[in-house]
Amino acid sequence: MKKMLILFVGMLFITSAYAQLKEGQSFCDENEDGSYFPLIFKERKIFWVNTYYTETKIGTKELNGRTYFEYAQTWENGAVDTLYLREDEGVIYQYAACCEEETIRYDSKFEKGHQWKNMNGGKYKIITYDGTLKTRLCEYKNLMVMEADMGDVIFQFYYLRGHGYVGATVDDTVISFATPTFDLD
Question: Which CATH number covers residue 143?
Fold first, then answer.
């Protein structure tokens, strides 16, 4: 389980930022003009297996001559991971402090079937831009679905235009989802 969490943190967020909703926009509805990886949110909440974390935009940071948005992921147990993301002409890059280099998280020009690898050896593939996902909160449609093969586990990550990351599955079981609140009772 710990390895799955580490792999998830290392590759997901990137990715995947959750935008602030437009006036009148439902948490579950796409923004057809929005990106699958908006980097404009201030805070988002994510359930992951049997825990949760908040992801908060801290500001910007200069790394190797490039400016990245800096995000703190604060887990339920108090552990904090830091992500560095930037966008350039529709390409989302994630900086890995461990390796002092960046990798492509997503390119808006990627078509269905496109495959690539990250610096940690993960293999990614765009499965569809017409995916669906049912979570405890929403029944999403028109999702971009990205497969992430980490060797010992294969994730399906789901992204909604204007929101970014909205959930993940392993073997068709929902293991993670975005939420506007931690109080789901």
Answer: 2.40.360
Q: pLDDT tens across 96-129, in order?
A: 888 888 999 999 999 999 999 987 788 999 999 9
Residue 25 token pair: 């926009």
State the total domains in the chain.
1
Residue 33 CB-half CA count within 13 A: 3
50 lies in which domain range?
2-179
List of residues 6+ apart from 76 with CB closer than 8 A: 51, 52, 53
Q: Is position 184 within any domain? A: no
Question: Is 59 part of a structural domain of the chain?
Answer: yes
DSSP 94-149: EEETTTTEEEEEEETT--TT-EEE-TTS-EEEEEEEEEEEE-SS-EEEEEEEEEEE
Q: CA 62, CA 169: separation in Å to the nearest integer? A: 34
Handedness of CA 96, 59, 92, 154 (dihedral sign): positive
| Residue 72 is assigned to a structural domain of this protein | yes
Which residues are registered as beta bridge partners of 131?
143
pTM for this predicted structure: 0.83
Rounded alpha-carbon distances, angstroms, from residue 103 to 11, 146, 150:
10, 16, 15
Instruction: Pick left, alpha or beta for residue 40 (phi over 0 → left; psi -120 to 50 → alpha; otherwise beta).
Output: alpha
